[in-house]
Amino acid sequence: MAFNIFVQLLVNSLIAGSIYALVASGFSLIYSTSRFMHFAHGVSVVIGAYMLFQMYSLLHIPFLISCILVLIITGLFGYLMYKGIYSPLMKRKSSSIVLLIASVGLLILFENLILMAYGADVKTIGYIKGVHVIKFLGAVITPLQLVIIIASVLLLVLLWLFMHKIRIGRDMRAVADNPELSEIMGLNSKKIMALAFILGTVMAGFAGILIGMEQNLEPTMGMGLMIKGFTGAVIGGITSVPAAVLGSYIIGGAENFGVWFLPSGYKNAITFLLLFLFLLFKPTGLFGLNKGVKK
Amino acid sequence: MIESYLLHIGILIAIYIILGVSLNLALGFTGLLNLGHVAFFGIGAYTSALLLKAGVSFIMAFFISGLIAAIFGFLLVLATRKLKGDYLALATLGFSFVIYSLMLNLTELTRGPLGIPGIPKPVIFGFKISGLLPYFIFVTILAVITVFLIYKIVKSPFGRLLQGVRDDEIGLKVLGKDTFKLKAKSMMLSAFFAGIAGSLFASYITYIDPSSFSLAEIILIFTIVIVGGIASIKGTIVATFIIILIPEALRFLYLPSTVLGPLRQIFYALILLGILLYRPKGLFGRIDLE
Q: Which domain holds residue A170?
């Protein structure tokens, strides 16, 4: 019996962790190249989910085409945020704090635009219907949840391959590692930053699609997701994408195994507590390097 | 009708002036990037509400709510003493999330999302402040006292030291000053005033729930301070009038409340972004946010 519960909690941890990892990977990609906390990343996920709702549920565009459109829109959204707000601020040599506050402003702005456009009531996309479940070692998992886990892992592997095997991905890591030196070596760090914003926000779009298929949509869910993804990134190590991904699975695990001991209302409190403790005692995270984090 | 509406706005402005000026003491004058100010406001409101419901006199509840907020302010500085820049900002933001989730989850104490209704109006020396006009006069007097005290603090030698912490912490340490103590005092004073603002808010609205102390509220207080200008008390006061009054004009468009709420938030966010982009020192500030 206890073993069943253990397996079920493990499965739940994997599902939650996969979604957080998608959020965290984009966030950490953007952080590592531009060195500021892009909090509006949470609203990118929400925009992804609502665009899927708009395309697929309202306009009845075929699912795969809807998904591709969502990814294009979120990529464009990432580019516009960079070009319209962050790039002018960076040009004026604003501190990372100013950029952080601007990103919270962006988060509030778009969250409320979505709220005005779609209303506060909960939306469902309902792509996969039915309650057919798969049993696995006594644990229950729906096919959709299996798809979420597999798709996230696949995407994260693709992201890793991109950053290590492809020229432009390696340039990105070079800028993350040492911006001045890469600039001297002839890399255009502004272009790389813009690319990181596009790619990171497309990852957020993927997260939005998967969340939209699995959960109900609410305009205000961006902040919660951002906190989870961000905490994952901090626990793993914010300057490294793989570390942020690992941290996200740790968050998924801590939250789900935490309800074994605590009432489920404390699920979010567990995350906040971990975030606070890590910021205080190990701001570089478990696997991150102490590079440019503490000045 | 119009009179009571104006008094209502006046009371809110007085409460937000206390909140804004006290945040500016920590943020502007001492350079402590505190994104958790709303948590002190909430702690004050809940402390005061619970004490008043338990039958404690208003004057006691009022001061205790400030003191409890100040204790939390001390703990926050103590916990975050090694952090700077974004990490300090995020730890303080994390602090306000922790307090928010405690308000939601400590249901035996706070009743969670149901909130605390029926908070009594203040009774001072047997005189009950219940009408709108007496309450307006009451909070205005307290706002004036707060502004006066904070003005005196920042002009005092102690205030100069606080600005020293902001501009050159290492320099102050070389001179043998205990900068941790200075930061702790500044944050505790800032938290104390936020706590009493919470007490005033709770007794005015008579009902509080966690949603009054959420992220949107942080943005509002932060926008007020940034629009007014870092380390400018005059700026914060002028900005409070602008930020609270302008969205009120939207009310006369007779939009449904489901549109009005988000529209107000959009307005705050746009003002914040506009100021950061085009006038980063705010209306009356002389110092850049760093």
A: 2-222
